[in-house]
Specification:
Layout (H helix, E strand, L loop, with lengths): L1 E7 L4 H5 L12 H16 L6 E5 L2 H10 L7 E3 L40 H17 L5 E6 L1 H11 L14 E7 L2 E9 L4 E4 L10
Parallel strand pairs: 1-4, 2-3, 2-4
Antiparallel strand pairs: 1-5, 5-6, 6-7
Helix pairs in contact: 2-3, 4-5
Length: about 210
Amino acid sequence: MKRLFLMRHGQTLFNLQKRIQGACDSPLTELGIQQALAAKQYFEERQIQFDAAFSSTQERASDTLELILPSGQTYTRLKGLKEWNFGEFEAQPEFLNPKRQPGAKSYGDYFVAYGGESADEVAKRMKESITNALENVEGDNILMVSHGGAMWVLYLLLDLLKEPVPIMPNCGIYEYTYDNGQFDIVQIIDPIAEKIYRISEEEKNVRN
């Protein structure tokens, strides 16, 4: 069984400016750097060492990962871990984001008409990329740094909980287990606020 720590990158300039940030990129802020170092401290205090590490190909994710890993530890960049492409909405103010339909948990295929990706496309490439990496890597503890939107739609696709939890803050972590093609969720970690939300069996969906 593998333990997957799937983490969001630290705060960026576009996060600070409240701009839509998907396929486009912006650098980590000073706060973003401190958030990554807080995540590093979280892992160190619990003596969690990583047998393998991956990041999306975007700078904000790889820079976050490099702040966390011990000096000299290598990692792999995966395009499949990239953020949702929001098409013509990229770099625009966040208030231009569409309102979600009643009962909807994501934007669905809204951005496709504007040259972006659908939620299903993002979730499926995330799952495929992560699964392929986990199946082909040695070791038990794996760290991956990705993005809020992409992590959220993957979480929805896996459908592990009866009720969804809030979207993760910068450097928030979903801790999953992976065994024989099956994901399970263990806990949700906010190393900045020093909060851990442990998932009970009662909260999980019943599996066939």
